[in-house]
Amino acid sequence: MDQPDRRQSADxxxxxxxxxxxxxxxxAAIFEAALDQLTSGGFARMTMEGVAGAAQTGKxxxxxxxxxxxxxxxxxxxxxxxxxxxxxxxxxxxxxLRHVVQGYIVVLNSRLGAAVRTLxxxxxxxxxxxxxxxxxxxxxxxxxxxxxxxxxxxxARGDVRKGAAVxxxxxxxxxxxxYRAKFCxxxxxxxxxxxxxxxxxxxxxxx
Amino acid sequence: MDQPDRRQSADxxxxxxxxxxxxxxxxAAIFEAALDQLTSGGFARMTMEGVAGAAQTGKxxxxxxxxxxxxxxxxxxxxxxxxxxxxxxxxxxxxxLRHVVQGYIVVLNSRLGAAVRTLxxxxxxxxxxxxxxxxxxxxxxxxxxxxxxxxxxxxARGDVRKGAAVxxxxxxxxxxxxYRAKFCxxxxxxxxxxxxxxxxxxxxxxx
DNA sequence: CCGATAGTGAACGCAACCGTCTTTTAGGGT
DNA sequence: ACCCTAAAAGACGGTTGCGTTCACTATCGG
Lengths: 207, 207
Fold this sequence. Notes:
By secondary structure, chain A is mostly helical. Chain A has two domains: 23-73, Homeodomain-like (Arc Repressor Mutant, subunit A, Orthogonal Bundle); 81-205, Tetracycline Repressor, domain 2. Chain A contains ten helices and no strands. In chain A, 34% of the residues are buried. The A-B interface holds A 41-45, 120-125, 128, 132, 135-136, 140, 161, 163-164, 166, 168-169, 171-172, 174-176, 178-180, 182-184, 192, 195-196, 199-200, 203-206 and B 41-45, 120-125, 128, 132, 135-136, 140, 161, 163-164, 166, 168-169, 171-172, 174-176, 178-180, 182-184, 192, 195-196, 199-200, 203-206.
């Protein structure tokens, strides 16, 4: 149904070519533009005009697909999210926690992560209701579930203290990373991940 | 114009009270109204008209005092904040941490706490720059410093593990409370404080 | 080759709300 | 008592950006 031969190829971003995409190709460009705008300026500064302009299309194409700005943002995030991946048994809680922490940090520093962070930090009362369930279900919940799995496995294995496999403990990692990202200049590199692991997570769960 | 009976023309529950305040009294009423609006509807829904109306005054009185909505909010928060109180030596790190956690929870559930939480969760890119320094200096920094003091004292006393007196560890408590308040329905009661203490903070710092 | 479908681009209406300004009135200093 | 300043109340203009609509045109299926 779609020809790989696209006229937009490479001879100039704004070369004046007609560039009329349809269906999935256009939708992908719109998502791209929406994530860019969301990442760089936040939800408030992202405008439908801006997205349409950056995607080289018009607002009508947007409103034919989504009823509102919020709907567009949600779909753009969903489309960019990889399916949650299970954590394999790596033999020790330390290795598994390290795996999750470093993976989380990578995601947090990706463009998707920046968009999600921006969005989370910018929800007024009405948007909050709209996005909170989504964020909880797609971001918070899977993370906590994964860590809880690690803790249970470690409890059975013996390298996690008995009784530590509870949601309060599982929440520490995401809470720390988001707190850091939000209030301390956003420096969430691998080094911080190691410190978090060594100073907080491992001491907290050791038997 | 010859009839002096224009005291209060509308639904005023004030009922013939001294409707025309000045100076400090008026300012206090404005702060009150601003905090109310901020708490109930968030920063976006708080409007200058709304604050003026709730304070039974006009916008002119607001703009004579503050250059913008953001300035008003900041002053209202500063005026409502109690001076930071030092943590006394209670003999054990557990007692001192419990003291801080429960104190933090009380503040978080007060009207001031609700206003601060709302504000933190709703900062678009331009406001963020404006408020971030303020929040860090007045909220995040003092809290971390207080906990760091507890950790150092405990380290010297021997009931806190060596090397735990670092900011990453000190940040765990506020990070957890804010994460909870923001993403998990806002249930931050004393019971949760005890669980946080027993499952996270004490295991993390025990020698 | 042709008609249906969908994208383009721009104009418009509309609502919210900021910040200014004006008019009338009350308090309080002197 | 008098006058000056500040307050109350609201009208006003300006900006922003959402969401709609319209005329036109490229692309695709048949």
